[in-house]
Amino acid sequence: MPKPIARSKTKKAVAKRFKVSKRGYVLASRAGRRHLAASKNRKRKRRLKRWGRIDSVEEPRVLRCLPFGRS
């Protein structure tokens, strides 16, 4: 019998923190919204709600942990 091909598993910690967009960009939620929100203005907090692209240097490392995230 032939040996099964080794597959890489999804790193669940990474899957909870990042998502891959339809175009293939890696998105992450922005930092700075957890606490001390009273000192931040409404516009800043609203912008922190959105997902943002991560740096292109970090993308290959995240995508290696998400083998099924790419389409």
Automatic annotation (TrEMBL):
SUPFAM superfamilies: L35p-like (SSF143034). Belongs to the bacterial ribosomal protein bL35 family. The keyword Iron does not apply. It comes from the Bacteria. One of its GO terms (molecular function) is structural constituent of ribosome. This is Large ribosomal subunit protein bL35. PROSITE patterns: RIBOSOMAL_L35 (PS00936). Gene3D superfamilies: 4.10.410.60. The keyword Membrane does not apply. Transmembrane segments: none annotated. One of its GO terms (cellular component) is large ribosomal subunit. Pfam families: Ribosomal_L35p (PF01632). Signal peptide: none annotated. GO terms for biological process: translation. NCBIfam families: rpmI_bact. Keywords: Ribonucleoprotein, Ribosomal protein.
